[in-house]
Here is the input.
Amino acid sequence: MFFLYKCRKCKKEWRYPVSRCIFCGGEVDSISVTGLRVKRKVEVFVPSPDSELIPYSCVQLSDGRGHSFFKKTIKKYKVGDSYKNGNGGVKSGSRVSLVKTKYDVVGATVESLKLVEKEIKKDSSVLIKPNLALAKDGESGIVTNPLVVKGILKYLIEIGKVSVKKILVAEYGVVGFDTKKALEKSGLKDVCRRYGVVFKDLSTMEYVNKSITYEGKKYNFRIAKEVYDRDLIINVPVIKTHFQTGWSLALKNMKGVVDGPTRKIMHQEGLHLPIALLNKLLPKYLTVMDGSVALEGMGPAMLGKSVKLGLVLSSMDAVAIERVVGKIIGISPVKHTKLAASLGLGNFNLQDIKIVGEELELARRSFEKADKKLSPHPDISLVDGKPCSGCLNSLWLVLNNLRVKRGKKSLVAFGKDIDVNKLSKKKMGAVGICAIRQLSGSGLMTSSLGGCPPSVEEITEYIKRLLDEDK
Amino acid sequence: MEKAVYVTGIGKTKFGKINKTLPELMYEVMFLALKDAKESVKNLDAIFIGNFGCSVFNNQLHLGSMMASLLPGIHMPIIRCENACASGGTALYEGIMSLSGFKKVLVVGVEKMNQISTFKNSKYISFAGDYSFDYKEGVLFPVAYALMAQAYMEKYGATENDLALISMKNHNNANLSPKAHFYGSKVTLKKIKTSPMVAMPLKLYDCSPISDGAAALVLSGKRQNKRDIRVAGSVLTSGYLSLSQVEDLTSIEATKVAADLVYKQAGIGADDIDLAQVHDCFTIAELIAMEDLGMCGKGEAVGLVRRGETKIGGRLPINVDGGLKGGGHPLGATGVSQVCEVVTQLRREAGKRQVKGAKIGLAHNVGGTGGTCTIHILKKE
Here is the structure.
């Protein structure tokens, strides 16, 4: 959690991550500083925007070799005490590491992996599954920051000595959106190229059928075979609020390993239960949670607001890590997290979770929840038929882009789960083949746009026509 | 200094909670300085503005252009300089440097901080240190200087009472300076010692206030009249942004380096200084500054304070107008204001707070916990 950067040749030191020495041209190594003791302690009695909880202490930690670091703490340290990572608590139970990124996301990721103490064998084959939902910048909070993946690769290859040939980075983004474009736009392509690691679009690979019975009903999933062929899966979600599920963290990120038709069914079945059941079918995985830049508000995409949270968390327990993230962002556990816990997928009780690294209380930052307002456009209201991500993201993107274009007020339905009887005979348009099927014969559909999903360009023209209807 | 530089005009607003906007403060002080210099704005070649936080305190950047908007029809170079609390000293340093090409320049230091709450201010002021290594770890500026105070007290046996004596002296001096933030305030030693704890061991009255205010200087490469005061030395040095990188918390390296350089430049030693305006953002900073400026040995500053040698009338008067503690600390204005006081003293125009026979004065301005230091030495010819 504390790093120095030192020139191999002339021994000059930095606190900021630099890779080459400006004085002698030598290579600079990142060094993790350990063996810190409390040299001085200041009790602080005035609050400030990022330190509202008072009194708190600020300790000056020293490694005895002339290096000092500051740490805000609510623990009762005395001068001379050893500095302890973590929050105390249980000796066993699920381990969740919590590390601040500061200026070094890669270093923080490596540190969070070290703290979680997951043994990785040299000859392991590894699948890394980031979030590349859409073609967005790596620091948008919408996709995984490539620097987190870089940290994972550094850990695997340089520290764990895992062979590059045995590592695969793979994802299948939102249906209807180009995963390869997302790979490029996020910056992850450059990271993979730099390490010589292969990236694959999971939608082009083989799927296997899996099923699970829950309360007498059978649920079917088509899951990427790759998931079962690997020794270790590393799930790399980004912390996001989600207007349909409350949040999108570890459990939901694994939706990326199922095929398109399965995703649509998951949406139609309300998402929460299918997410939990899917995770029950998967091998146990390691989660490295990207909180470097997160998303609050109307997540999980363009209408959300990015937040520089500055954290990376890791754990072998997906439920526990979600529980800890929930505490940090001030959002109560969502339905699929609770369901996953009830299925035995992890520790839900905080007393059974050992947090190592930063102090949880001091890492908190309340997130704005995703509110229930559906449409980003003032003149287009939406009938929510629980659409899949394809229609959802496309339509939202268009409505957001067109929000300053005013026109005729219209109602538009999307998704399969439309209860025609509850629609009060309102006339509406339909976007996507699911909505068209639902509304056919109802007498309510005034216009439609087919497709599964329709393209952003097609939706744009359709919405423009709706807005211009009376002109 | 090789090239002659003179301060030909000074101006200063009242420091405190001032019900004037940023442009109003800039305009007022510019007016005062030009009037004092008997100079026309049209004869200036450039303006240098020292300001730290206009973006966060006032939602405003591009202050150069704001100044130009106050001078319709004038298109001279106007540059804002930012080096945290040493922004004013930096603007002065830049102004002096520019006289190798220009003939007359104006230096303005300005800050308007009371538009937002103290709570928010504490965050924005912390931008003068490292945001991730310091602020996000709870190291606000009082905390940083509290760490320095603890280190100094451990090493040299200074006490909270010594810090209180410094505060008392500066408040007494402020009551002799009508433009000081705390002018007219009744502050007793008991009030100082019993004030609320901010960051152990620093109490409220160990900390300089949050002030609005502005100060300005007219500089010329030639002497204009008898009241002009010569700039004998001007130095700017840099240091670490985060206090965590400083090994010895009882000293500010940038000040020591600057002091060596400026004394050589001015052809004097520390003993030749008749009065010093030092950067007492917190009382401990005054103790540390005296030692770093070579006015006494390490650990000896406490003795000077206890014996009253730093009072007006003492062997080495420090912060004769109240300094930052009593006079106020509008961040970007401080460095310029310090020089205004030195000039006033050397002109023999300081009234009740006049240091008798003062010929050489020093102004010491620090950014953050030593990220920047400027020292200016002025001599009466």
Summary: Chain B touches chain A through 31 residues (CB under 8 Å). Chain B has a mean pLDDT of 97.
